[in-house]
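Let us practice reading a record.
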Amino acid sequence: MSRAAEDNTTRRHSPVYAIFGSEEFLRSEALARIMADVLGPQREQMALAEYEGPDADLADVLDECRTASLLAPMRLVIVRDADDFISNHREALEKYAKSPSTTAVLVLECTKWASSTRLYKIVDQLGGNIACNELKGNAVTGWVTSRCQGAYGCRMDPAAARRLVELVGGQLGVLNMELSKLAVYVSPRKQITEQDVEELVGASRAETVFKIADAICDADARRALELWDQLVALERDAEWRAVGGLTYSLRRLAEAKRSVERGMAVSEAARRFGFFTDANRLGRQLQRFTLTQWEDLLKRLLEIDLGAKSGLASPREAIEKLIVSLCAGSATRPRLAG
């Protein structure tokens, strides 16, 4: 057994950690846990040294690792954005990891960390490899329900978790922020339902769509474009998701319009189609366009959505052009097809 492995059997944490992967939120969570473990609840700053990888000097980093802290039992040395730093100093880091300081913890935070390298294998033997890869599919909804229970003490229906992911996307940092707001929203209840998600998260996006439609009908292209930028900002993982969110909300408006024209009360349409706003406002919104115009608008959005997912067109630019053309013709409310 190597000296590093022997030392690691008697210490609470690895002398070297590699936090790697494309999911930034998981990396930040892992780093926070290590900081709390090594520095304690007080987080003694004099025992912490942080470097940015592109500017980090190897000698400075290793000197910090080998210099005992006078104020804490362990020193924590962090190199952020360390991909190039690792590539440029791999042999020296291998040598250090084989015989690390007993009074320091070195953390390398990076995106790529090849499992075929000697450095990976040495750190793995120390128990210091922490993978933070992007989650996909059901793994995202599973993370949502687990995070909701563990971090916020709330149970979440599977349907609610799926709906939250549909609305927000798979970016864990954004999902965590929405979970935090939902936990406060339902308090003192400890159960988050799909309706809660619709009322808090879905309504905020629906409200933005309402405002976009208002701006279009007022021929205020600048305002409509500003609101579209806000909607895209809510869907940072993919512009096509923002197009999908816009289409989803406008489709519900078209369905509400069709139902009202068939005799349904506006208040009932607001409830049935999930518009958490006053009935008078929904009624004014539905009058903005005829049913034919709503349907033509949805056809154009569908074309944009398909073009975006196939990579044939920029969804953001296509929506911007659509908004400008609608604002130009909103005074007379012409047919939208063509």
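A brief commentary: Strands lie at 16-20, 48-52, 75-80, 104-110, 129-131, 155-156, 191-192.
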